[in-house]
Amino acid sequence: MTVKLESDEQELMERWVRAQGAPQQVLKRCRIVLLAHQGHADVEIAEKLGLNRHTCRLWRERIVREGPEGLWEVAQGRGRKPRAGLAQRIVEASENSKPIGRTHWSTRTMAKAQGVDASTVCRIWQKHGLQPHRQETFKLPRDPQFVPKLLDVAGVYLNPRQNAVVLCVDEKTKSQPLDWTRQELPMKRGHCGTWTHDYVRHNTTTPFAALNAASGSVSGRCFPQRRHQEFLCFLRQLGAEYE
After folding, report:
1. CA nearest neighbour of 169 among 96, 85, 235, 91
2. pLDDT tens track of the chain, all 243 residues?
3. Among candidates 66, 69, 50, 57, which has minimal Cα distance to 2?
């Protein structure tokens, strides 16, 4: 059977042969067809490419019947059969079930339950963004007015009044002011900065801080205790700063 390629088909297959990422079996098929197009017989092509002449005849017939796209198809019964729905089964089991007597799935327990290798489970979890070993806590407020209060607070940031100063205030209790037992040594060429492994505790303190949401500046002050008196004192300080 004679193979006659159109100019665009010949150019397409030559481009596939030059492509670095094309599968080797596709490259071999393209070379068979291009040599057949140049007038070489199946025996000559088989000897040149190190193939069986029946393989050359097969792809010569197939290019005539199906065109260049047929060179990319894999016949039924060739290669490893993919397990249909494996990823879906593992994802659904990860999201909707737990192993007996345990709090969450691990790659090994899921692999044993699904009859696959642990690396397969790990790859599927990574692809679908599943992390059964990680858990976070949350708490639902019981206040029936929670949503209106939330909107009031969020509205201060999203749509403040004209000439308003929006501050976010927080406190951190019982912070320990620490100091190194020796002065740290600065970084030099060929040596990183160093400091001692031990430190001295200077009791505890309660820092109050306020962030100006518009400018990013922070106002702060430390108190020995955490009571409403200290909090009011800090608010008065902020009022004096932003009058």
Report:
1. 235
2. 567 788 888 888 888 787 766 677 888 888 888 888 888 888 888 888 888 888 888 888 887 877 777 777 655 555 555 455 788 889 988 988 888 888 889 999 999 888 888 888 999 999 999 998 888 888 888 899 998 998 888 888 888 888 777 888 887 877 887 887 887 778 888 788 887 878 787 788 888 999 887 788 889 998 888 888 999 999 999 888 887
3. 57
- Which three-class secondary structure state does DSSP give residue 2? coil
pTM above 0.85, yes or no: no
| Residue type, position 241, single letter | E
Residue 118, classed as helix, strand or coil, is: helix
Q: What is the 3-state secondary structure (H, E, C) of 170-228?
A: EECCCECCEEECCCCECCECCECCECCCCEEECCCEEEEEEEECCCCCEEEEEECCCCH
Taking the C-alpha atoms of residue 108 and residue 103, their distance in angstroms, rounded to an integer, is 14
Question: CA-based Rg of the chain, rounded to a whole angstrom?
Answer: 36
